[in-house]
Amino acid sequence: MGQIAQVAAGGRTGGGRPGDEGRVEAMELIAGGADGPQGGVGAEDTPARTGADVSGPARPAPVRGERARGALLGLAVGDALGAPAENLRPSEIRRRWGRIEGFVSEDPAGTDDTEYAIFSGLLLARHGSALTVSHVERAWHHWIADLDEGPFRGAGFSERGTLENLRRGLAAPISAQHRHAWSDGLAMRAAPFGVYAAGRPSEAARLVAVDGRVSHDGEGIYGGQAVAAGVAAAMVGAGPASVIAAALSVVPMDSWTARSLRRAVSAARRSYSDRLTTERAVRSAVVIGGYPWTDLAPEAVGLAFGAFTAARGDFRASVLTAVNMGRDADTTAAVAGALAGALNGASAIPREWGAAIGPVRGSCLPSMRGYHVLDIAELLTPDEADGPAPPPSGAARLTGGQRVAR
């Protein structure tokens, strides 16, 4: 959604163990009596088939931790792949790069999508299902609004509006009364809620709405709920059709978000002669031609689910379809990557893509610098984590809400 919140390369690969400052901080952030995650597979969805039709030997069904890593690493990969195409038309993308099939820069850079997903994931890991609007509001103040860390770089308009309101002393939900409350800023950070509430789309939707009341309203909330519910369904192996049904089940059927999602999915399910025609059909189904703002939640969520549907849940195809449709491409690809990553697990992410994602640099949220999305996946699935690694010498840690040197 933003433009320059860069993801540091080279720190970890998709399946490696964390050994960096971010993991230590993430583990210690929730130490000391905080409510831990209580997620698990509920009765709202039952495992179905994995969605992608792929050649070669079938992989065993991924376990919950593998799906969690797939969802959040998939988000970060989609974010970084889509960032160069953000706000571009498909014709502009083709003119610059042809069809994007991988990273188009040597130093792949993500955006605020990844850093805000980490922020919300840490908050969710600390409070679990007991998360309240007050918790979220205090965290926004403590980690973002009240810090004197220079310009708020790379952020979307909804975050800027929220911060202005918080700094003026306004509290939630009034803090969400700004001109971009309908943006995809909640949808971009919604995947951790689906990871936490695996198999419980309604709970995922409830929790992401709690998080979103500080910054969003109306369609902005609905967009986040659709994404969180879809990821929650994918986390227990629901096929693409069931993932889409879960997303639609938690938003008003007469909402713009629901209409856009249905139109995109309907277009994506038709048969076309080639990928470009498919992408044009999905895009035409939801994009308002000539409208300048690309961060509309109904549009971005529709494009992401349309890409996921057109690809039949395959990770690579889902993300690249979203990227090559342009518009808010970092967010649409991040959402498509989270859905397909949760469905197929981290092993479905191309190795070279996962290896490019390291701890975030904090280019948008300085307080998140050093965290990795895979740390968040472990925190949200504690029963499947391998246990904390010993802290590296000299690492920083969070103590009493402040960073101090060891």
From TrEMBL:
Transmembrane segments: none annotated. Pfam families: ADP_ribosyl_GH. Residues 1-63, 382-406 are annotated as: Disordered. Residues 33-42 have a biased composition (Gly residues). GO terms for molecular function: hydrolase activity; metal ion binding. It comes from Streptomyces fulvorobeus. It comes from the Bacteria. InterPro entries: ADP-ribosylglycohydrolase, Ribosyl_crysJ1, Ribosyl_crysJ1_sf. This is ADP-ribosylglycohydrolase. Binds 2 magnesium ions per subunit. Mg(2+) binds at residues 111-113, 328, 330-331. Its cofactor is Mg(2+). Keywords: Hydrolase, Magnesium, Metal-binding.
